């Protein structure tokens, strides 16, 4: 016989608030707003060759419309926060289109820091960036080489990290705003080496533990990588009852024939299940973003894909030359590149949703 345990009093209150309130009420003094429809010069621009959004549709952002993707527009996400100064430079460079969301990360199996230290960093990040929608990715992989990892999905599924996971859930529950969350992102990559059985179980364990501690403001993202091929992606699926959004990461080879086919199949599967879509990480790695041809070769198909049914996207705006494992990716900060004007013009379109 199953015994239903009552939620903690504060957890029940959070559930009532999340269900009833507009998302805008969770974002403090800032609000989600569409782009102006003009670029920095005040002139309309259509740099991707797609139609500028009409801005019509529901702009009533309740938690439920956000969880189900039942809103008009595309959420603009910035980050990551590993180097805060780079994120802040990006925000300062495009003041009219401040990201509605920001990406950050947490590692369950980090050998450099204790759980207490990692949890303190997470609290500080969420306190420092107290406006906007946070998007947390949790990894449970230890690097074996630059291209291969040792996954701890079996240990997560078995409960070995329950105490730390519960504390992450309590931290997220204390946020007076929605939180997007992606456990074990890029689940099908050899660099993670997760198994379908244990990965799906680990995902469900996160959801169940978060619900147990009252984290009812969390939106769960299942995050695929088209270059990963350890097993067919649906063998990793945790189930419709615990997955809210489907996510696909896009890098330099995303629009090659092979990867494009995989992306299209994944997008079609998400739509068949009526799951909203997000790009949690994206960057044209190993391409030169000071070459105007890169806009047509990578960014035009990138934004065309976004316009074809995605509810949010995140550009991973970093100088990767400072990251030893990825230094050959290049400096991919869009505000430092020759493509900055085109980026500004694209994000000024009405379908993109920003924080103001």
What CATH architecture do you see?
Alpha-Beta Barrel
Mean pLDDT: 86
- Number of β-strand runs: 13
The separation of the N and C termini measures 50 Å
Largest sheet: 8 strands, parallel, barrel
The CATH class is identified as Alpha Beta
Which key terms come to mind for this protein?
356 residues, alpha/beta, 8-stranded parallel beta barrel, two-stranded antiparallel ribbon, 17% strand, disordered N terminus
Describe this entry's structure for a reader:
The chain has 356 residues and is α/β, with parallel strands linked by helices. It has a single domain, classed as Glycosidases (TIM Barrel, Alpha-Beta Barrel), CATH 3.20.20. Helices cover 33% and strands 17% of the residues. The longest helix has 17 residues. The termini are far apart.
At a glance:
With 356 residues, the protein is of the alpha/beta class. It has ten helices and 13 strands.
Chart the SSEs and their pairings.
Layout lengths: L8 H12 L11 E3 L28 H6 L5 E5 L5 H10 L4 E2 L1 E7 L7 H14 L4 E7 L1 E5 L2 E4 L1 H6 L3 H12 L5 E5 L12 H17 L5 E7 L20 E4 L8 H16 L4 E3 L12 H16 L2 E5 L25 H8 L4 E4 L1
Parallel strand pairs: 2-4, 2-12, 2-13, 4-5, 5-8, 8-9, 9-10, 10-11, 11-12
Antiparallel strand pairs: 1-13, 3-13, 6-7
Helix pairs in contact: 4-6, 6-7
